[in-house]
Design brief:
It is a single chain. This protein is mainly α. The chain has one domain (about 1-134). The chain has helices at about 1-15, 25-45, 60-85, 95-100, 100-134, and strands spanning about 45-50, 55-60. Strands 1-2 form a two-stranded antiparallel ribbon. A hairpin with a 4-residue loop joins strand 1 (about 45-50) and strand 2 (about 55-60). Helix 1 packs antiparallel against helix 2 and helix 1 runs antiparallel to helix 5 (about 100-134). The protein starts with a helix and ends with a helix.
Length: about 130
């Protein structure tokens, strides 16, 4: 539930940010879609162990680590690029546009899309297991 609210809030912020950065909403939507695909991949790579009384799963550590490293790298790059854009914004271009904020929105949307899809899939699988074992 909270991840869905976060995703909706991110899209609202991206829509407002599109006033200053025209590609912000598009990047956020692409990040959300990419995260959804990664969530489906994560569901496929998770190890599922079913017993008559319970369902256990182990997410793919490599995929979660890769997503975390992408976000950490994007944050570091965003800070670096913002710092340089602030001090050397070319002519008519705003330092905000030059900072690459749209890419940072896409990275955040990627994580939200992943978790939204992954947890929806886990919830669905748990409910299916409950119906079968009941």
């Amino acid at each position: 539930m909270a991840v869905g609210v976060s995703a909706a809030f991110l899209l609202m912020v991206a829509a407002v940010t599109s006033y200053w950065i025209p590609v912000a909403l598009r990047y956020a939507l692409m990040g959300l879609a990419g995260g959804g695909l990664l969530g489906l991949l994560g569901l496929g790579l998770s190890r599922w162990e079913e017993t008559p009384r319970s369902l256990h799963y182990t997410p793919s550590r490599a995929l979660v680590l890769a997503i975390m490293l992408v976000v950490a790298a994007r944050l570091a790059y965003g800070f670096w690029r913002s710092w340089h854009a602030w001090h050397a914004a070319p002519g008519d271009t705003s330092w905000l546009v030059a900072s690459g904020a749209a890419g940072s929105l896409a990275a955040g949307a990627l994580v939200l899309g992943y978790y939204l899809t992954y947890w929806a899939g886990v919830w669905r699988r748990i409910n299916r297991h409950r119906r079968v074992s009941a």
